[in-house]
């Protein structure tokens, strides 16, 4: 299997992250992707190709202009006020506050365009986020030119980023940008299967009103876990998109036998939809020893997961999302990809 990789992810390298009431070393570290790359090279999974530059157009097909503009300028605006410290929001336009005014001050803008304080903007954030989108777009292009399956080794991840919201370590929604590019190039239907531990709130939101994308997500129950405010079972799409969104909220501690049953249901929905292309938001934070998550999949289970997704039998674009057990992350990602190809 081909992999697409960009070293520019190294530019997202925060000093601190606000997590569980403390400023701690970040959970989303550059080591995650470097460990996956090393494993891919060690087992000779296939060629590793660099990302091509696609410019802003495919990004603006998914994200709002003003949001992209904000991401490009946030660091320099922040530095003018506060110096070179991580930019983190402290205020949000919650419930009864106004949603229709975009503040001029950077503090106001950070809150307006974010939904958590755990996603630091740094000097290199925009460069890394853009490169990550280019990784997914390059993989998408390879698929269009006849590859059956390609792995986009994206970082920062993307599935929490909505049209004009960042959070959950995500700035640009790589899977959504690649999906839209596939549709713009002539695909009629794209299926997105999100197996990251966390609900793909950004991806769901982007395609919620549309019937040209089927979104299926398995994730921790939002009653108990991040991102908390989306990902319930009764979110089934709106308007033309009704019936094209499926959420499977799962309990903490879930093991493979039960997980596999729900995954099978999601796969059956996908087979029934018969997409031209399958996009997989691949997070391996479902691992039993993941430092920020509470499912209980084992290293071997990822082989089975990959094998199961092969039964959908469609051209498949893999987009890397979460997974924070750095010593094992390479095994888990490659197990999925090997299971799929076997
Ligand atoms: N108590 C992805 O996996 N919150 N993002 C962690 C832990 C943020 C995860 C809090 C989790 C974001 C792409
Ligand atoms: Zn996750």
UniProtKB/TrEMBL annotation:
Ranges where the Histone deacetylase domain occurs: 29-336
Cofactor needs: Zn(2+)
A Pfam family assignment: Hist_deacetyl
GO molecular function, one term: histone deacetylase activity
Keyword list, A-Z: Hydrolase, Metal-binding, Zinc
Domain of life according to the entry: Bacteria
GO BP of this protein: epigenetic regulation of gene expression
Protein family membership: Belongs to the histone deacetylase family.
Protein name: Histone deacetylase superfamily
